[in-house]
Design goal:
Shape: globular
Number of domains: 2
Order of helices and strands: HHHHHHHHHHHHHHHHHH
Helix content: over 70%
Oligomer: single chain
Largest sheet: none
Number of strands: 0
């Protein structure tokens, strides 16, 4: 595309800022909104190209809706357009989450609104459970993948194997089953786990450690935004002890009511861990791959995702991620469901999320569970 054919950078930024301000309802709703305007109305690419591009970002690390915004920004405005499109999409959620995080800490919000967060946590447990169902439908397409997902969940619940080894092992196992083991060079292209393992072994300052954990999560979240949950839960709650499981659930609940990719709850995790600069470090770390991949590596990633020797490895990794998500759903539900009313709320929330897929369904479910939970706490619980 020549310079004359490119869209003005200001126009691109404002368009994707609008997308970010209206990004309710999770990845499916966000992707539908982007497709409707960029493909159906503007005709920037064909439906076939969009579907192919979406398939690449769904199987590779990062929040796919955000990566699509960066991709379209690159297409219409070059590298600067890509950067501004990505920033525009994430900015509304980032600003709102920073504000809510500060409010949560400075006013001891969870204690003041304990009755409200009682219902929020039940809704979050259901939200993670429904994400497992949807990811399973997308990636678990045969019996070996199902078995890998079950094994991943069991090994995660028992703590027998670390996340990185689990993902690599599942990828290799499925590649062996399909007789498509990638060469060392091919695996190096798609295996950011090496960097994740390296960052885990270096002694860093708190802010640098928060950034490193965010970057590691951003590189390991195969399958979309929801898959960041088990990685951040393991590193922030179990390994570093930066926040409690209840606080982690609260951050997910706050993320669920904002117009943003759910991955923006990582800003909350960073804020609890290290204040304002911790929030910035975590956010930059976790979103960095979602900028770098579409801007600099889009062509290579398409080739990787379509390589018949590499794709089975990626699908095995994705199956393991589904198992990780299932394990973390069990843990979060165990924390959120503390009595019969909270169990009923969680089941009802799951049923509504399963049945309805509207743009504001997640928002209504989280707020509704919060309100009902508060009424129950103040009356019969």
């Amino acid at each position: 595309m020549s310079a004359d054919e490119r869209d003005p950078l200001r126009s691109l930024f404002l368009r994707f800022l609008k997308f970010g301000s209206l990004a309710w309802g999770g990845p499916a709703a966000q992707i539908a909104m982007i497709s409707r305007e960029c493909v159906d109305e503007e005709r920037w690419v064909s439906h076939e190209t969009f579907t192919k591009t979406l398939a690449v970002y769904q199987v590779l690390p990062g929040p796919e809706a955000h990566e699509l915004c960066v991709y379209f920004g690159r297409l219409r405005g070059g590298k600067r357009g890509a950067l501004l499109a990505g920033l525009g999409f994430m900015l509304p959620g980032l600003v709102l989450m920073l504000g809510l995080s500060a409010l949560y800490v400075e006013t001891d919000l969870s204690t003041r609104l304990d009755e409200l967060f009682y219902g929020f946590r039940a809704a979050v447990g259901a939200l993670v459970a429904i994400a497992v169902v949807r990811l399973g439908r997308r990636f678990i397409t045969d019996v070996p993948l199902a078995l890998l997902a079950v094994a991943s969940a069991a090994l995660t619940l028992t703590g027998a194997v670390g996340f990185a080894l689990l993902l690599v092992g599942a990828g290799i196992a499925y590649a062996l089953i399909k007789s498509a083991v990638p060469s060392f060079r091919e695996a190096a292209v798609v295996n950011p786990l090496t960097l994740g393992l390296a960052t885990a072994t270096i002694t860093l300052s708190l802010t640098a450690t928060i950034f490193a954990e965010g970057l590691k999560a951003g590189l390991l979240t195969f399958g979309g935004a929801y898959t960041v949950i088990p990685f951040l839960n393991e590193s922030a709650v179990d390994v570093h002890g930066w926040l409690s499981q209840d606080q982690f659930l609260d951050g997910l609940a706050l993320g669920g009511v904002l117009p943003a990719p759910l991955i923006i709850f990582s800003t909350f995790v960073g804020y609890i861990a290290g204040g304002f600069w911790g929030a910035v470090a975590m956010t930059v770390g976790i979103f960095l791959p979602a900028f770098v991949f579409p801007i600099y590596l889009h062509g290579a990633l398409v080739a990787v995702a379509e390589n018949p020797r590499i794709r089975p490895f990626l699908l095995g990794v994705a199956a393991a991620v589904v198992g990780l998500m299932a394990a973390i759903a069990v843990d979060l539900l165990g924390q959120a469901v503390v009595d019969l009313p909270s169990a009923v709320l969680a089941v009802a929330a799951f049923a509504v999320l399963y049945r309805f897929h509207g743009k504001l369904t997640v928002l209504y479910v989280v707020l509704g569970c919060g309100a009902i939970g508060a009424m129950l706490q103040l009356t019969i619980v």
